């Protein structure tokens, strides 16, 4: 407890807060819907031809939310912005599953839409 909290008789511990943009979640969802990379086999690097074809690590939206759930285990409060980006279907269903899991671990969610 710091001195200021003690003098003001504050007993609440500091909260760990994170912010989540639903716009960014939507973009990750759209990335997960792209067709699988057509260059699955490694391409030999020839200096005369420049860089090899790009290889993308495509993850499903379920994997994105599982990673997010894992990263936010130590967070007490989650501020969620721009929920209008949560369109129906798979994205909304995965978000609702994430919210249920986050709350089950004792977290609190505050929606901050303007």
Descriptive keywords:
alpha/beta, 37% helix, 114 residues, Rossmann fold, 4 helices, elongated
Helix content: 25-40%
Spans where pLDDT lies below 50 across 5 or more residues: none
Shape: elongated
Q: Provide the CATH architecture of the domain at 14-33 and 59-114.
A: 3-Layer(aba) Sandwich
Annotated CATH homologous superfamily of the domain at 14-33 and 59-114: P-loop containing nucleotide triphosphate hydrolases
N-to-C series of helices and strands: HEHHEHE
Could you tell me the CATH topology label of the domain at 14-33 and 59-114: Rossmann fold
Percentage of residues in DSSP E strands:
5-15%
Order of strands side by side in the largest beta sheet?
1-2-3
> Count of DSSP E strands?
3
**Average of the residue pLDDT scores:** 79
The whole-angstrom Rg is 20 Å
- What is the tally of helical segments? 4
Largest sheet: 3 strands, parallel
Short structural description:
With about 110 residues, the chain is of the alpha/beta class. Helices cover about 35% and strands about 10% of the residues. The protein has a domain at about 15-35 and about 60-114: Rossmann fold (3-Layer(aba) Sandwich), CATH 3.40.50.
Outline the structure in words.
There is one protein chain. By secondary structure, this protein is of the alpha/beta class. The chain has a domain at 14-33 and 59-114: Rossmann fold. The chain has four helices and three strands, in the order H-E-H-H-E-H-E. The chain has helices at 3-7, 22-32, 61-71, 90-104; strands at residues 17-21, 77-81, 108-111. Helix 4 (90-104) links the parallel strand 2 (77-81) and strand 3 (108-111). Helix 3 packs parallel to helix 4. It is elongated and about 60 Å long.
